[in-house]
Each structure stands twice: as C-alpha cells, then as structure tokens.
Amino acid sequence: MSRPVDFLSGKIMRTLFALAVPIMLTSFVQTAYSLVDMIWIGKVGSAAVAGVGVSGMFVWFSNGLSLMSRIGGQVKIGHSLGAGDGREAKEYLGSMLQLSAFLAVLYGLAVNLSAGHLVGFFQLSGADAVRSALIYLRITCGMVIFPFLNQAFTCTYNVCGDSRTPFYINTAGLLINLAADPVLIFGLGPVPGLGAAGAALATVVSQILVFLIFLTRIIGNNEIFQGLDLFRRRPVSYYRQIIGIGFPAALQDMLFSVCSMIIARFVAAYGDGPVAAQKIGTQIESISWMAADGFMAAINAFISQNYGAGKADRIRGGYRSIMLIVLIWGTACTLLLVLVPGPVFRLFLNDPDVIPVGIQYLSVIGFSQLFMCAEITTSGAFAGLGRTLPPSVVSIFFTFMRVPVILILQRASFGLDAIWWTISISSMCKGTVLVTWYLLYQRKICSRGMKIKTKEFLR
Predict the structure, then answer these.
(1) Which of 197, 281, 300, 359 could form a disulfide with 380 if both were Cys (CB 3.0 to 4.6 A apart)?
(2) Is residue 1 part of a domain?
(3) The predicted structure's pLDDT at residue 451
C-alpha cells in the first residue's frame, strides 16, 4: 500500500494535489474503457457507434446506481476515520460492499430481462445499430458487479488517503482492455471478429482482472480491510445511513441519465449520424467531467475527514484550493473544445456526414466546461459534509428543464443546435447556482465553530 495522505494536518494545496492527481488519473482510466471501445468501434462504422453509444447510457445509469452505496459509504468511512474510530469505519465498509454487490446483481438481471424494450426506446433506424446495442448492453450490464465492487474498493482507498494504489490497478485493467479490444472486435488468427460483442467482452475481462488484483492487494496490505466479514449482516442503521446520504446523489445521477436518454431520442429523429456524433462528442467531453470527478472525490475525502475532526479552517481552505485547480482545468477544456473541435473529433471518426455535426456539438458544449467542473466538484464538497440533497435539487431541476426547452425550440425550427445550446446553458446555470449555495452553507456551518461530536454524525 502506498503511503497515505494526511488530511488533518499539513499544507492544504499540497495535500489535495497529492490526493487529487491520482484520483483524476483513475477517473480518466475508468472512462477510457468506453473511450477505447468507441475509438475501435468507430472503425467499424457509424451504425455500430450509435448502437454502442445508446447502450453505454445504461452503463452510465448503472454508475449512478452504484453511487447509492459508494458515496454514502465513503462519507461515513471518512467521518469515522476523522473521529479516530477505526471500528466504525470497518463496519461502514462492510455495509457499503454488501450494498454494492446487491445493487449490481439486481441491476444486471433487470437489464437483461428488458434489453429489447430498453434499446427499442431509442428507435434506432438501422438493424446493425440495434444488434450492436443489444449485445453490448447484455454483456456489459450483465457483469456490472465487477465495476461496482472495483469502484467501492477505489473510493475506500481514496478516503484512507491512498489514491495511488487504485490508479495503478485501474491502469493495469485499461492496458488489458487496450490489448483485447482490437483482437476481439476485428479478430486475430483463430479468434473471430466479434464487433460490438468483442468490445463488451474486452471491457468485462479487464474489469474482472482489476477485481482480482484488488483482492490480492487488499489481503495483508490495507488495515481497514483486515478481519472484514463480508457475509455478516450489519445493524440496519449502517445501511440506512449509507443509503440516506447516497440516495440523493444516486437519484441525481440516474435521473440525469434518464434525461440524457430522452434527449438522445430527440437526436435520433435526425438519423444515426447525429446520434453517433453526440456519443463521440460526449466521450470527448468526458476529458473535463471525469477530471472533475477526480476533484470531487478528492475534496469529498478531504472534507469528510476534517468534518469528522471538526476542523472548519481546513474545510474552507480545502474548498478554496480545489476550486482554484478547477478554474485552471475548466478554462483549458473550454478553450480546447471551442477553438479546435475539428481535429479533436476526427481522432475518433472520419465519416464526412458526421464530422460537421460533431464539430458543432463540441464548439457549443465547450462553453459550459468550467461551470460543469465547478458543479461536479462542489457536489463532492457538499457530500463531504454529509449533505447530498442540495446538489441533487439543483441538478435535477436544471437537467429536466432541458426537455421542455428543447421541445419549444424545436417547434420554432431551431433543429439540432437547439439541443446543443440547451445542454450547454443549463450546465452553466447548475454550476453558478450550486457554487453560490455551497459558499452560503459553508459560511453558516463554519460560523458555528464546528463543535461536532462523534455521536452527531455517526448516529
């Protein structure tokens, strides 16, 4: 195990930077699984890209579901560690892992039983796109238990101050995926080309290997996992507290996915080309929001432990420091997408009918990158304080406002641009409102002097 970062003392910027960089890189690695799939599938054709793209939304939806156990578990583990109660931290860890496994099995069964209806919702126009969507959906979501548990292991390492170990392990999985994708998609020697099924299998195999590596590292290397009984039922209060914190974040992310599916159906009315353009554009955009996910995890871990220890000054300093990093990163992403959308998009697809749509998508959505990064990071700060409802309220409201706005603009014959600009402007609103709300809330709780007792946040 790498030497853990000390959240409770030392220079705040150095502490956050040491924690955030590996987490950010881990987020990139986890996103790169689907990104690599999309790069190789793009060489098969736009129909396959459209099919894999819509199925990827249900993988995205599953990530939201995993937040229910992962966010709540990480926060409660952090509070316990900050208060110096290792036994409670271990109990919350066991509860989190049990909930993660249960939710993953339930989701995998539900998706496979209803796969035809789920893909049919998007009304894809090509038979090849539908076939690609079905096979990719059944394989990736059917084996979603492995990414669920891998994410739970990752957030546990992070909140314990060791973000390097999960980065190394997840990077090993990505390298395996990189090697397996072209072989399984296009075939090599006796191995037949499987197309979309090959991309899904490469992802699943790499996730299984990541899970096995985590297990070998956990045994004898991480104190919080030692003596952990995964099959013992914990008191209901542990599960209730984890779900109570994690449910608003999970609902927010899942409803965001649902709204994205509705918008994707609007896009599908213009043909498979625009669907492919948006899916690739979303993968490119993930460069900024997955980095923000890293910032979110870092400030969540930092604030949760300092909240447990009652250190108001470090909470304020931590948020101020992480937002400075977000300002630099978000501005850089905005400039990249707005100024050079063409060369970036052509890295993934060279279809002349799709490229103009993709360039327009990136150039419009690029204006919202800084605001989106600020929103995601601030959600992590709220969660570190045990308050996940404010980010959920802001996100759900502005996200679902996209649907009526798009309908109104489309009736006015604004076309695809109406969809792209609605997404971008709503992201700007979310970032502005949530940051303002957090600053007001932080000032309120820190003015109390943070006289927090252990029993206050563990009950």
Answers:
(1) 300
(2) no
(3) 46
